[in-house]
Structure formats: structure tokens, C-alpha cells
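Before relying on records like the one below, remember that each one covers exactly one chain. Contacts with other chains, cofactors or solvent are not represented anywhere in the record.
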Amino acid sequence: MATRRIIKDKDFGQIVIGTRRTARNITMRVRPDGLHVTVPPYSKTEKVMATLETFRERLLEQYRKVEIRPIDFSYAIRTACFRLWLEPSPLKCFTLKQAGEGICICCPADVDFSCEQVQKLVRAAILRALKKSAGSYLPPLLEALAERYGFSYRKVKITGARSRWGSCSAAGTISLSCYLMLLPPHLMDYVLLHELSHTKEMNHGPRFWELLDSLTEGKALSLRAELRNYRPAF
């Protein structure tokens, strides 16, 4: 029984079909590197692909939002809490400049964006900008929410984590991904309240969700579902 099948695809680049022993249904999730499909054991590829076709257009809409595209001077991030753009500069290195409405990445005027190393440098600069903004924006917001709802924590850390939006340790340290800056404000608040709730309930049992529901007007599960439409990436 194959546990992983990779199929080339004209739209997604590749479709990765993975078998999970505990899976009962076919689930599909778009990622920057293609479409990832989880299936129950002994699922036939033909059946999986036929099921996929009924959702292809909807999945393509999602994929276009997360697909990795080359960055050039036309690139910009404009969310409610974070603004970033690129401009040519006479300098020979990539630098960050704080502007009135956000952060500008100043790039050498003759930069070759088709170069893989340049793409890595630009993305590293974007990550630095995200961390800088997150370090200024998220800790005061977390403190305000904690004070409003009666929570306490030991300290807060800003990370570049892409595997999770946030976490809370047993010692009371809350870690927040800088990618939170790309979320709509109500989902940013949800993640912070989620982690603050872990200072009282360290698991995801019924009492945790009851607590989080009380902080989100009964919308904890719907907000969690909405958050799944976003990925910690740019």
C-alpha cells in the first residue's frame, strides 16, 4: 500500500496524496508547494482524482492566494496591521526604512529579481520587517487583552514560526509568530486570546473551549475554522 503519491498537475504543480491510517474521508489542503490530499488506507488514485475534480476551481482560488510568486518592485503587503513595499536605492545592499505608513525595503537599483539568491535576501528582509513590526505591535496588544480579561503570563516572545500562530508554555511564556501581522485584526485577537486561555487551561478540553467562547461571544470554533483559511507565510 503506497503511503505517498506525487502527481504532476498543470494547475497546482504537484498533487501530493498521503495515506493516513486514521483518516475516514478525503481531505484537501492547498500549500505554496502544491495541493496536499490526505486519504484513508487503500484509496485508489483514480477515485481520489475524480473527487478532486469536483473541487478543483474552489481549490484553485485558495491556491492562488498562497502560491509562492517571485518578489520584485511591484510586490507589496497591505494588511490592516502591516504595510510593506519595495523601492530602488543607490545603496548596494538591502536595507529597511521605516516610513509613515509602514516599512520600505530599499533594494539596489540594478537588482536581478530572477536570481534565486536575491529572492532569499528579499524574503529574509521581509521576515525582519515582520518581526520588527510584531515586536512593537503584539506585546502591548497581548498585555491589554490580559488586563481586560484578567489573565497573567510571565513573558512574551516574538518568533518566525510558520508551523503555528502561537503557543503557551507551562511556565507562562507566550510565543507569538510574527506572521500574525498578516491576519485580520479579529483573528489576531482570537489567537492572542487562545494563548491567554492556555494560561488557565493548558489543554484543549471542554473547559478550555468554554473559556475561549466566553471571550469571543461564543464564536471560538467559528473563528478557529476561519483561521484555517490563512497560513503563516508571505
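The CA atoms of residues 151 and 209 lie 16 Å apart.
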